[in-house]
Write a structure and sequence with these properties.
The chain is of the alpha/beta class and 308 residues long. The protein has helices at 2-12, 16-58, 60-64, 163-168, 220-226, 229-258, 267-279, 286-300, and strands at 70-87, 94-103, 106-107, 114-116, 121-122, 127-140, 144-152, 156-159, 174-175, 186-189, 198-201, 206-209, 212-215. Strands 1, 2, 3, 4, 5, 6 and 7 form a seven-stranded mixed beta sheet that branches. Strands 9-8-10-11-12-13 form a six-stranded mixed beta sheet, with helices on one face.
């Protein structure tokens, strides 16, 4: 009996070398998994950064075009979310682009950002997909201030849109015929409607969505339709910061050329525009600045001394 117990005990005993090998194997496996995750995470970080930079570079031609609208598409190799954010630091504020890509059914979260002070991108909270549509229009106030870049990935249905808007936007994700609109389309109404996601009032120059109104002037109508409220208000403030700086430069130019016999008659208006643009804190404050811009346009159309 004792011998049988010894035999069982011997049978259950595992050599120390085996135990050591198993422990080492577990540690190696753990480290392999740990570093693999780290490498994948690092790879995602690099891919997100590269994609953000590529998007930023792709938008350069849209930002530098002049009088006409421009449309282009962008196709990425994997499911991507593009975030457009901004801040108002410095003279011109900053455009911030952030990208998150889907890997192993999870969205990356790198925190990397690409910034620039000469771009103005308007999108929803984020644009998601593999195919993106970019639409660029100039913003004159009254001189060229910047180009507005509209970034979308959803389908939109424009109902009763004015002919000039229908002529200007030529994107396959925007449909003007209600019968051809899909059920998933975001409905944008220009004459009111109970089932509209976005209601555009051209006469009162405002866009209502999610129970809130965004105010616009000129081509800012597109930014208000497609842009997230927080980003839109931030970008409007940035555009006014740029308007303020440009008005100051044109005021200097108007004073300079006046000394040489070419009086534009715009020095006081440009100073008023500079001060008014500086005081704009939200799109709702655009009204008084719009009046000054209209006054400048009316004078500038009849003057021979052009400043821009």
């Amino acid at each position: 009996m004792l011998n049988k117990m010894k035999d069982k005990k011997g049978f259950l005993q595992i050599p120390f070398s085996w135990v050591f090998a198993i422990i080492v194997g577990i540690i190696i496996l753990f480290l392999a998994i740990y570093f693999a995750v780290k490498i994948i995470g690092s790879g995602n970080t690099e891919i997100d950064a590269a994609t953000s930079k590529q998007i930023d570079v792709l938008m350069n031609p849209l930002e530098t075009s002049f009088e006409s609208s421009e449309t282009t598409t962008m196709i990425l190799p994997s499911e991507t979310r593009i975030y457009s954010k901004c801040d108002n630091f410095g003279d011109f504020g900053n455009q911030i682009i952030q990208v998150s890509q889907k890997s192993f059914n999870k969205w990356s979260n790198t925190g990397l950002k690409i910034t620039s002070n000469n771009k103005y991108i308007f999108t929803d909270e984020f644009a998601e997909g593999e195919k993106f549509y970019l639409f660029s229009v100039p913003f004159d106030y009254p001189f060229k201030v910047a180009n507005l870049i509209i970034l979308t990935s959803k389908e939109y249905c424009f109902l009763d849109a004015p002919s000039e808007i229908e002529d200007e936007i030529t994107q396959e994700n925007i449909e003007f015929d209600e019968d051809k609109c899909s059920e998933e389309s975001v409905k944008v109404c220009f004459s009111g409607g109970s089932d509209c996601d976005i209601d555009v009032n051209i006469g009162q120059e405002n866009v209502e969505k999610d129970g809130e109104k965004l105010y616009f002037t000129g081509n800012l109508i597109y930014a208000a339709i497609f842009g997230d409220k927080e980003v839109y208000e931030c970008q409007v403030k940035r555009l006014m910061q740029r308007t303020e700086q440009l008005a100051s430069l044109y005021w200097d130019k108007a004073s300079f050329v006046a000394q040489r016999g070419c009086n534009s008659g715009l020095t006081s208006d440009l100073l008023s525009l500079k001060n008014s643009a500086e005081s704009v804190s939200s799109s709702k404050n655009l009204y008084s600045t719009n009046i000054i811009v209209k006054q400048i346009n009316a004078k500038e159309n009849f003057e021979e001394c052009w400043l821009w």
